[in-house]
Amino acid sequence: MIKLSPSILAADFTRLGESCAAALNAGADMLHIDVMDGSFVPNISLGVPVLAALSARLPAFYDVHLMIRHPLQYVAPFCEAGASLLTFHLEAESDPWRTIRAIHAAGRKAGLSIRPGTPPEAVFPYLNELELVLVMSVEPGFGGQKFLPQAVEKIAVIRAEADRRGLALQIEVDGGVNLSTAPLCKNAGADILVAGSAVFHAPHPAEAIAALRCACGAAPSAH
Ligand code: DX5
Ligand code: ZN
Q: Which among 197, 199, 200, 212 is the best mutation to test ligand 1's pocket, defined by most ligand atoms within 8 Å of the CB?
């Protein structure tokens, strides 16, 4: 079944804990934490202290998306703060091999992300070492943008290569995921959908989560 990772970037930051708890109670599989440094992307969001505060109070799978330069430097603090999965960008300056090794040495899952302009084949050298590839379907930096349809083909290319190698790789897609774009991603081979606005800006986040699952062909659950 498709997994949903609501992006807390779209949540009400004055009630962050409650909003995250509500998303989890509504059946979210994990929480997507968008970390932006104002340099790799032209926006600044949140960082280690916010993740540490959330993970201390709210047991969950923390899906941490680093949109920062020099991610290797920040692997240890984010892992200590409670990241379950740490995803960094191929386009960031750190050496991908060393960064993946550092994440694994901290006992966490490693993800590699690519911006819309990076071809899917760029992740191929690293596939055997990764738990996840994150395909960006918007330019990273802001929530609420329009889904770029080229992401669908990129998901399919990476899924085909992972299947050819017999890998249990998970593919996640992030940006502009809503009721119409979610099924396209699922059908192309995505396992995890990130959704910010579609969940937290909906009048009823619980219903939005259920509707996204339903759009991807899952039977409605008790949630
Ligand atoms: C964009 C972030 C996304 C974003 C998704 O840089 O990585 O996770 O918050 O937000 P929506 O779902 O609103 O496009
Ligand atoms: Zn993200």
A: 197
**Amino acid identity, position 147:** F
Ligand that lies nearest to the alpha carbon of residue 6, given by its number in the listed order: 1
- For residue 198, how far is its CA from the centre of ligand 1 (angstroms)? 10
Q: Look at residue 127 and give its three-state secondary structure.
A: helix
Q: For residue 87, how far is its CA from the centre of ligand 2 (angstroms)? A: 9
Alpha-carbon distance of 70 to 37, in angstroms, equals 10
Buried b (16+ CB within 10 A) or exposed e, 31-41: bbbbbbbeebb
Cα distances (Å, whole numbers) of residue 57 to 50, 85, 107, 149: 11, 18, 21, 37
Does residue 221 or residue 147 have the better pLDDT?
147
Give, in degrees to the nearest 5, the angle at Cα 46 between 204 and 137. Answer: 65
Q: Is there a contact between 185 and 152 (Cβ–Cβ < 8 Å)?
A: yes
pLDDT tier at 218 (50, 70, 90 boundaries)?
confident
175 close to ligand 1 (CB < 6 Angstrom): yes
pLDDT tens for each residue of 152-180 = 999 999 999 999 999 999 999 999 999 99
Residue with tokens 């960008």: 89
Burial 113-136 (b: 16+ CB within 10 A, else e): bbbeebebeebeebbeebbbbbbb
CB 197 within 8 A of CB 10: yes
Q: How confident is the model at residue 45 (pLDDT cuts 50, 70, 90)?
A: very high
